[in-house]
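retry 2 of 3: previous attempt timed out while embedding 2-acetamido-2-deoxy-beta-D-glucopyranose. Reduced batch size to 1 and resubmitted. Inputs unchanged:
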Amino acid sequence: MLGSPCLLWLLAVTFSLVARSQLLTPQDFKEEEEDETLRPPLPAVLCDYDSCRHLQVPCKELQRAAPRACLCPGLSSPAQPPYPPRLGEVHVVAETGSAVVHWCAPSSPVHQYWLLLWEGSGAAQKGPPLNSTARRAELKRLKPGGTYVVCVVAANGAGESSVPEAGGEGLDGVSGPTFGPCGRLAVPPRSLTLVHTAVGVGTVLVLLTCSALVWHFCLRERWGCPHRAASLPTAGL
Ligand SMILES: *[C@@H]1O[C@H](CO)[C@@H](O)[C@H](O)[C@H]1NC(C)=O
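retry 2 succeeded.
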């Protein structure tokens, strides 16, 4: 009667082996899958984000929409006011008395921007709020010959970016291209363009008079009718 326990034992061992192999197979696959997810992903690329580009969508939104993971520049905490934006090119259009101001976003979360404009030592004029995609704004009704200081301000839920010594001696120190939020702009005097026009018209008049005189004294004489020209004024008198 030793045969039946032995047979049972053999059966049990085979079943358990089969069962184990069946159990192991999916587990092994799982482990392989886990290995794949643990493998470092392809080196991520930078998102197509330019802090100075006008109508730039925030990098976080680019990241959400990107088909592949991409990297965004680090930002300061949203619980802090933004760092000041960096003023870029200021293009003055003298004819229309306007200027186009460019800037670059700070590395902070920003909800909106606006411009501040000082003329001389007067009070600051605040421009309309611009949404966080804006990097360019137009200043209008600038006076010919006027000099101004313009600053870009960024704001978020925690406050607004700082402006160096607003409206006073501090801004007199701002000159030329800066790396800060402020810059000077000078509108050329309109009288200059008037002077240019006057000089141009004057030159044309002088040239016309000269050619008329040359024609009168030289050419008509050569063609043999100077007497009529000379006699006309006396006849009039
Ligand atoms: C932001 O403002 C610009 C115009 O200055 C506009 O074209 C754009 O649609 C605005 N974006 C959002 C998200 O409101």
